[in-house]
């Protein structure tokens, strides 16, 4: 990266000192990760966001929903900055609050809303987290989805259901792979069709109502890529993120959040071969960090998460230098009512065991 920009980022960080706290998601570019005080998966970053109540500014190098969650979890006086407002998440955009409210109304008409508990993936807008809090549900991330889903199914009681938003794959994988549930118990709610494209009977019979959302990056890892890796690399271990499709997850040796992927590879002996199914910035960094292992990207035609990549060094420098000049640019602030109920749902997650 541009040495001039690196110097400017260093100088701005030094000038801000303890007034600044920089968080970086594992999918961020190397040039940005270099300036993060803490790196992590979305669960770790949600916990870390509240770890420095003395910092005036939290600069979040990640995507919009993560910065919103950080704003909800940090003290009121702290200001959260997202260096590029265009850093969204295509999955989070697949569930709009009006669609979710509509879905809930239709579940009520079908007579199942009373026994349905919403479980919402972190990758969602604050408005949907707030909906979840108001309706007795919890947030989950890819590292605690199993615990969150077990909790919700217990809350729902016998014959009860979970509405899982917005990632159908994480919902399905957690139910079927982690909890041993049957795929036939899952139905997919399509927000663009009347009654989600389902009949009342299908809704009544289902245990998992999965929102029709997916990650545009992880959805592209294929069964063929897993088979090719097994053919081409002797003794390869396939490790994938649970946002991958169920067929892919079923064929993998290990499945986990970004933090788990890193820890698993870090703990493996030299000479281990890995085909990794998650975002490319992280896979490249792992390959550089563990040269004694063979680490390859699982699918040749999958690219970076384009929205994670919006945060680059020029945007970071601009955000930091603006703060040095006393200007808070790109502040992410969630309105009080939304934040209240979203916090209820996030606190439920943070209180889950483990
Ligand atoms: P993690 O929770 O594993 O960090 O994943 C977040 C994400 O956006 C995956 O696509
Ligand atoms: Fe969203 Fe997928 Fe990018 Fe994660 S990798 S931020 S889920 S689009």
UniProtKB/TrEMBL annotation:
Domain of life (superkingdom): Bacteria
Top enzyme category: transferase
Catalytic activity: iminosuccinate + dihydroxyacetone phosphate = quinolinate + phosphate + 2 H2O + H(+)
GO CC terms in record: cytosol
Keyword terms: 4Fe-4S, Cytoplasm, Iron, Iron-sulfur, Metal-binding, Pyridine nucleotide biosynthesis, Transferase
Gene3D superfamilies, A to Z: NadA-like (3.40.50.10800)
Family annotation (InterPro entries): NadA, NadA_sf, Quinolinate_synth_A_type3
Keyword Iron-sulfur: yes
Pathway(s) where this gene product acts: Cofactor biosynthesis; NAD(+) biosynthesis; quinolinate from iminoaspartate: step 1/1
Any one GO molecular-function label of the UniProt entry: quinolinate synthetase A activity
Family named by the database record: Belongs to the quinolinate synthase family. Type 3 subfamily.
Function (record text): Catalyzes the condensation of iminoaspartate with dihydroxyacetone phosphate to form quinolinate.
NCBIfam families in the cross-refs: nadA, PRK09375.2-2, PRK09375.2-4
PANTHER family noted in UniProt: QUINOLINATE SYNTHASE, CHLOROPLASTIC, QUINOLINATE SYNTHETASE A
Entry protein name: Quinolinate synthase
Protein species of origin: Phycicoccus avicenniae
Gene: nadA
